[in-house]
């Protein structure tokens, strides 16, 4: 077995001498068997943002969220509690709720044979109950999904996984996040935006995890914070990137007006009152904290070559004219950046299929790409291999290599 250059934290050095500069092997971006392993080990077993509490503001309000073969409902019950369930009827597995979001008036009725569930997930009654064995309201209720609300963001985890609680994961960022009062924000777009991309999900992370491309590829961000941007690579499951607005007035219309209108929001630290702060959560999520708005985005695979990027934006309930205007301008800048990134992601992913592709050479400014690749190789050791394993062996080989590592 040929393994890619050995990894190790020590290799990520600031002087660049010791850093291994290669990336993941190309096969890891195209292999469906590996994709199935990723869905299981990375996506089902790591925390995912489902929504914000303001997406389910009233009793009976719900959102649904499908990811990697899993289907979730987040619903606010009659008791005002927010809960997460599998969107899976206990009779024959139908979705019990089919809309992306909505309000349940009283009970949840499965559209297939009309089993009825209470808003806390318990089974209320089955249609023609006398034709069925005795059913227990809890045992046969909608299966709960592990859930944690952190600063208003609702995180779910479909299966038990290696990460600690979300609060623990972000403990080192707590002091910085608290002044944003995220829990008091509301969805500014009314829902979630989903974009399907014809590439492997890791290609999105590879582009998003570094700022080396900002000066050339993102004129707006360069105009906004340019040389004041830096990335702190992944450590204990989270990464941090920070761009402090430059003093220049801004050449581009959106940036110029953003800088001019940006109000001082009370409570923000000196470092963050004129900065865009991005917190990365391994393996696939970013929370963007801007002075007058917040966003999150996450990417997850449909297959090895198809990815969904899902995002949402949030605003403060009470907004001044300047807050509203700068939120709008930030969305506009993000929109342009997103289009620019999509092109780069597609180009870099398709390059790996070219006969001329000879691996990548990472700059010191791309340490976070390397940090994520190391983390992927830790989570799924088979990704250390230079060549794709023989067909039908990826999952078994990975299990073997994982056992070897944990010995
Ligand atoms: S599948 Fe839900 S009632 Fe039959
Ligand atoms: Fe980018």
Question: Quick summary of this structure?
Answer:
The chain has 407 residues and is α+β, with helices and mostly antiparallel strands. Helices cover 26% and strands 25% of the residues.
Key structural traits:
alpha+beta; binds FE2/S2 (inorganic) cluster; 407 residues; 10 helices; binds fe (ii) ion; disordered N terminus; Naphthalene 1,2-dioxygenase Alpha Subunit, Chain A, domain 1; 4-stranded antiparallel β-sheet
Describe the protein in words.
- The chain is an alpha+beta fold and 407 residues long.
- The protein folds into two domains: 15-45 and 172-407, Naphthalene 1,2-dioxygenase Alpha Subunit, Chain A, domain 1; 48-147, Rieske [2Fe-2S] iron-sulphur domain (Rieske Iron-sulfur Protein, 3-layer Sandwich).
- The protein is built from ten helices and 18 strands.
- It has helices at 32-43, 166-169, 174-177, 201-208, 214-217, 219-224, 253-261, 321-351, 367-379, 394-406; strands at residues 48-52, 61-67, 70-76, 82-86, 101-103, 108-109, 116-117, 123-125, 146-150, 153-157, 185-187, 193-197, 229-235, 238-244, 275-281, 285-289, 293-303, 306-316.
- Strands 11, 12, 13, 14, 15, 16, 17 and 18 form an eight-stranded antiparallel β-sheet that branches. The protein has a four-stranded antiparallel β-sheet with strand order 4-3-2-5, with no helix packed on it.
- The longest helix is centred in the last third of the chain and has 31 residues, at 321-351.
- The radius of gyration is 23 Å and the shape is globular.
- The two termini are 19 Å apart.
- Bound molecules: FE2/S2 (inorganic) cluster and fe (ii) ion (FE2).
